[in-house]
Specification:
Number of helices: 11
Distance between the termini: 64 Å
Radius of gyration: 24 Å
CATH architecture of the largest domain: 3-Layer(aba) Sandwich
Number of domains: 2
Number of strands: 19
Shape: globular
Helix content: 25-40%
CATH class of the largest domain: Alpha Beta
CATH topology of the largest domain: Rossmann fold
Strand content: 5-15%
Structural class: alpha/beta
Order of helices and strands: HHEHHEHEHHHEEHEEHEEEEEEEEEEEHE
Length: 475
């Protein structure tokens, strides 16, 4: 009998051992991502659930934290405000799921996701969500039931990656605004943003398409379910709009097409659309580094506009004057089609903002196996690499770029032979990359000069989706 009990206990121990090992690794993974932009999510979650009494909760992506002064909105509307927006890469759905249980009687929810095909869908990035939780596994209770399987499927990969980071002494630590230290106690971005830093004044990689085509039907159904659930809890739910860079609107956008987009949302949603979309389409002088991220002056304008819309929706029709501070000077020149082409040089350039962009390689250099993008040409800085710039470079296996590059277009490195992209830079936040810079080439790897640069890029705002390609250059 004693022997049988011993065997049973040993069997249970052997069965439990793998789970104990996973649990130990999971605990060891905590805190690896504590400096990243998405590491703000647990703080926002805790603030939301700790805020008592009637509150206004603004739900969306990074256009919320880059476009809201919660203290000012609270002062203007007379109630507590919770900024519950973070990063489109997480998906709008997870922000809805995480917030729903905290919504109660008398609350107001403002839905203001970015107007983009990804954020207006049920997109859910399981890897980004686990990294954002950063060991706060208690938050999983509020992840939608339909995504629990996704989380489970990514869990071992997450703890393996985090454990490797810790073993190597690497803790991703983005520079500039995309660090958790940029947030204030309200969950708003407090990092100083005095002007538009985009080379063209808008993000040419991601034009804003205001058409019903960007909104999936299942997202509308899910959003309406969220709206109905909050209404049953005694809350008001209203839809407003994220800030939109006028210069970043898709070519062909008209007043008529904007109205049709507004009308479509108004008809489909189970809640009121309390804002005029045109009030949220602002000039590029008020934006910072994307078509949805505002600078400091833009934040004040958007916050006051939203406060006015909320008051009107509540039946308070007193005049609200929008304070339009002096906007920063727009010093971004429009691009011109001037081509600088010299037969004794390697590259073909075109004007790009205040500098130049690489648009091609001269025939005499197309047989090269490696190319180094220059920092300047004829005394003019080289800022960008445009789509298909290396067309015809069939022998090219490596390309090196430097911190002067601030814009990389989709398909810029669509080079079948490319094996290595060397990035000799440390600030990922100042080097904007499209979502598909390698085009159909799936084999190229990205090499960073050292651990500091790797830490910056692997979870950088523009570069995190390429994290699986990244390595530290040896020697």
């Amino acid at each position: 009998m004693v022997k049988r009990i011993a065997v049973i206990l040993l069997s249970l121990a052997l069965f439990a051992a793998p789970f104990a090992a996973v649990f130990a690794l999971a605990q060891n993974a905590r805190g690896v991502y504590q400096n990243t932009f998405t590491a703000e999510l647990p703080y926002k979650y805790d603030l939301l659930y700790a805020t008592e009494g009637r509150k206004t909760v603004v739900v969306g992506g990074s256009s919320v934290c880059f476009g809201l002064d919660s203290a000012l909105l609270s002062e203007m509307t007379g109630r507590k405000v919770v900024d519950f927006g973070l990063y489109a890469t997480l998906g709008t759905k997870v922000m809805l799921d995480l917030s729903k249980r905290a919504i109660g009687q008398g609350d107001t929810v403002i839905l203001a996701p970015e107007l983009d095909a990804q954020t207006m869908s049920l997109y859910f990035n399981r890897n980004a969500v686990l990294e954002a939780f950063d060991g706060r596994y208690d938050m999983m209770r509020d992840v939608g039931d339909d995504n629990i399987g996704d989380i489970a499927g990514a869990f071992l990969t997450y703890i393996s990656k985090a454990t490797n980071f810790r073993r190597e002494g690497i803790f991703p630590n983005p520079s500039g605004v995309y660090n958790r230290s940029s947030f204030n106690e309200y969950g708003d971005i407090a990092y100083p943003r005095t002007a538009n830093v985009m080379a063209l004044g808008y993000d040419a990689n991601r034009p804003v398409d205001l058409s019903a085509d960007i909104i999936s039907d299942d997202f509308i159904d899910y959003l309406n379910g969220y709206i109905d659930d909050c209404a049953e809890r005694g809350a008001d739910v209203w839809f407003s709009f994220c800030p939109i860079n006028r210069s970043g609107l898709k070519a062909g956008t008209t007043d008529g097409s904007i109205y049709e987009f507004y009308r479509y949302l108004s008809e489909k949603l189970h809640c009121r659309v309390i804002s005029d979309i045109n009030d949220y389409i602002l000039d590029r002088e008020f934006f910072y580094d994307t078509n949805f991220h505002l600078n400091d002056i833009g934040v004040r304008i958007r916050t006051q506009t939203l406060a006015r819309d909320i008051l009107r929706a509540e039946g308070d029709n007193r005049a609200v004057l929008i304070d339009y501070p002096d906007e920063p000077a727009d010093t971004t020149p429009e691009p011109t089609p001037v081509i600088i082409d010299k037969p004794d040089e390697t590259f073909v350039f075109t004007s790009f903002g205040k500098g130049l962009a690489v648009t091609g390689v001269l025939d005499t250099a197309k047989a090269s196996s490696s190319l180094d993008i220059p920092r300047e040409f004829d005394g003019v800085p080289v800022y960008a690499i445009l789509a298909d710039a290396f067309e015809g470079c069939d022998a090219l296996t490596s390309v090196t770029i430097h911190p002067n590059i601030v814009f990389i277009a989709d398909n810029a490195f669509n080079i079948p032979s490319l094996k290595s992209l060397f990035i000799d830079a440390r600030d990922s936040g100042s080097m904007e990359a499209g979502d598909n810079i390698f085009g159909e080439n799936s084999g190229a790897e990205i090499y960073l000069p050292d651990a500091e640069s790797y830490e910056n890029f692997v979870t950088g705002y523009w570069w995190s989706l390429y994290g699986g390609r990244m390595k530290i250059a040896k020697g």
